[in-house]
Amino acid sequence: QVRLVESGGGLVQAGGSLRLSCTTSGIMFRSVTMDWYRQAPGKQRELVAGITIYGYTNYADSVKGRFTISRDNAKNTVYLQMNSLKPEDTAVYYCHQGNYWGQGTQVTVSS
After folding, report:
1. For 75, how many CA atoms within 13 A lie in the half-sphere containing its CB?
2. Which residue from 5, 54, 60 is spatially nearest to 32, judged by alpha carbons?
3. Residues 34-62: what's their mean pLDDT?
4. What single string gives the DSSP state of each residue in 39-107?
5. Which residues contact 28 (CB under 8 A, 6 or more apart)?
6. Among candidate residues 81, 77, 82, the one with its CA nearest the CA of residue 102
7. Which residue from 79, 111, 58 is spatially nearest to 7, judged by alpha carbons?
8. 25-43 mean pLDDT
9. How sure is the predictor about 39, in pLDDT bands with cuts at 50, 70 and 90?
10. Residue-level pLDDT at 84
11. Which of 89, 14, 25 is nearest to 59 (CA)?
């Protein structure tokens, strides 16, 4: 059974930081690309960042220079370090791999 479990969301003031974690089970973690998506109220779900098995990363333009995706293959976990948070970063953040999604974790940034 595949499970993607996010944690680390919460309420933070603008300019603050949060670190999201996604712990996985049931997948060959070290052999797959992992992504973070987000969905704000009334908006479509969008790709935030991705990391390949070789550690290559890509980011949405809106988060470049502020967010960092990383992975720990020994822990089957992918992270999203979010710095200099803005109110427009408020969304539910989802971990994604292939056909699988986590349940999401809420990030709220107050102005």
Report:
1. 10
2. 54
3. 97
4. E-TTS--EEEEEE-TT--EEE-TTTTTTEEEEEETTTTEEEEEE-S--GGG-EEEEEEETTEE---EEE
5. none
6. 77
7. 79
8. 97
9. very high
10. 98
11. 89
